[in-house]
Fold each of these.
Amino acid sequence: AYEALQNALKKDPDCATVIAMLASLDGNIYMLDRAGSADALIRMIELSRRAIELDPNNQLVCLIHAWTYFVLNDRDRFFSEIERTLALNPNSPLRLGACGFFMALYGDWDRGKLLLDRAMSNSIGYPRWYHGATTALHYRKKEYNNAYQEALQYDVPGLFWGPMLILACLGQLKTKDRLSENLE
C-alpha cells in the first residue's frame, strides 16, 4: 500500500488525499513501533501539514491531520481539528466512527461513544476496530462482561490488540475456562 501511494504521489504530487494517506501509514508505522518509526513520525507530521495546506476542506485530510495531533499528544489541537473534521460532514459513518474512536480514547468518552454508536448503527460494514474504544469504555467502568462482548467483536487480523483485549477482560472476569480457550 505504501509503495502504491508513493507511485500515485509521483503521478499527482499535489493530491492531498494521497499525501494524507501516506501520513496515516507513517503514523501506523510509528504507533506500532516498526523499524524506522522515528523517521515515520517526522514524515507523518510533514505529510499531514502538507495535505491540510493543499486541501483544508477534505474530511479525510482533516481527520488524518487531527490524528497527527492525537499521536503527538497535543490535546487542544486534536480536539480543535476533530471538531473541524466533524463539521465538514457530520453524517459520514466512516469518518464519524473514527472521530468518535479517537475522541473516546483521548478522554471524551461520552461524546466519543455517541459518535461510535451512531456510526455502527448506520453502517453494517463499519471497521471492527471501533470496538477497541467501546471495549476500553466498558473496561474502565469495570463493566467487564460488556467489555468482553465488545472485545469479541474487535477484529483486526495480524494485530495483537484483539487477543489482548479479550484476555484483559477474561482476566478481570477470572474465568479460567474461557481464558484457556482464548489462549489456544
Amino acid sequence: MTASRFELVQIGDASLYRGDCREVLAAVRSVDVVVTDPPYEVTPGSVRHYTNNSMQNGWMADSYPVNSSRMFEVPAFEDWMGVVFESCAADADAYFMSNDKVMSDMREAAQAAGWKFHNLLVWQKPVGIPNRWYFKDCEFALYMWRGKAKTIRQPSSPQTFRCGHVRDRRHVSQKPVELIAHYVTNSSDPGDLVLDPFMGVGTTGVACARFGRRFVGIEIDADYFRIACERIEAAYDQGDLFVAESQTKTQSELFE
C-alpha cells in the first residue's frame, strides 16, 4: 500500500488513511473481513420525536437530524461497494451496518458488487426511539461473504447482540466497541486484516488493536480522523494486556 496522495498515520498494526475510500482502496488488497458502519440517510419526519421530555437529555437529543436533514455526506452504495469488494481476499466476510429503511437498497448494491448474503444480524439497544409505530430499538448488520463461505469462530452466536449505547460518544452514529468486536473476532483470526472504509472515530480500529488484528481504516473528515487516531493509539497503549486476557476470557467477560 502507498500513501503518496493521502495522509497516512501508522499506529501499531493499524494503517489509518485520511481520504476518500473510493480512491484510497485502489491501493488496498487482501482484506480478510470488512466491518463498517457506512453513511446512509436518516430522515425522521417530526422534530417532536427528539424534543419531547424522554429524548431532550438523551444520547442523541442535540444532534439527531429532522425534516430531511443529513448527519453527513451520503455517497450512493453503488459508488463504493464494488471497490470495497475488490480490496478483499478471494474468501472474505463483510458486515455492513444498516437500518430498516435502507437495508434492501444496501443489500442489492452489495450483491450487485459480488457479495453473497449470509444473514441479517441485529443490534438490540436498551432504549428505543419513540414513534407511533413501535419503538425503534434495533439496528442491523448485513452479514455477507465472497468466495468460499467460512465458519465463524463462535457458530453458536445468535443473530441478536444486546449491548448499550456509547455513553461518551465522539460521533453521532458511534457504535459500541463490544458490538464491533463481536463481528471482528467471529470472522477473523489474530493477525488477519480488517478494513473499515468509513472509519469515523475508529471503533473498528480499537477492536482490532485490542484483539490482535491488523487494520486499515479510512476516514474523509479531518476531525473524526484525528479522534480515531487518538482512540486507536490509546487502545494500543493497553492492547498487550487486553489481548493476553482475551486468550483466557470470553468477549462478554472482557467488556463487563
Amino acid sequence: MGPAELDKTLAARLLPATDAGLYAAAQRTVGAITLPVSAMMLSALPRLYREGQEPTAQTSHLLIWIFAASTTYGLASAGALWLIAPLVEWLFGTAYHGIQDMIRWLCLAMPGMALRIAAGLVLTAVAPPWMRVSVELIGLAALGLGSIILISYFGGVGMPLAIAGAESIMAAIAVTMVIWRTATAAT
C-alpha cells in the first residue's frame, strides 16, 4: 500500500500547494471507491491461505475470477467516476474548484489500482513475503521516478499519470508473480 501514501507526500513536495491539495482530495476519493475490491479480497483470503501452498484447479479458477472481477470493477468504477466528476466537485464545494479534472485524470489509475490491490493480497496469501515486498518497492521506485519526470513535463497532471503508471506496473508484476507462484507450487 506504499504508493497510496507516498504519492500524497510527493505531491506536497513537487506541486504547488493548491494542486497538491486537489490531488490529495481526489486521490482519497478514488481510494475510497476501490474499497469494495479490498472487501472482496478479505472474504477470499481465508480460502487462499488454506489452499495457497498447494493450489488446486479450483484455486486457479478463483484467481481468474478475482482478477477479472477486480479489473472489471476498476474499469466500471473509473467510467462511472469520470461521468459524475462534476457532481463530486459540486459536493466538495468551491474551495475544491478543479478537483473534477484531477479526478478524471486519476480515473486512469483505477483499473491498475483495483488489480494491484487484489494481486497484492493474493501474493500475501500464496507467496513468500519477499515477493509482496519487492512489488511494493518497485512500485515506490516507479512512483518516485515517474512523478519527478512527469510533473516536470506535464505539471499537476503528471502526478495522476505517475500513480497510474506505478499502479499498473505493480499490478502487472504482482499478477505475473501469482501466476508463476501458483504454477510452480502446483508442480
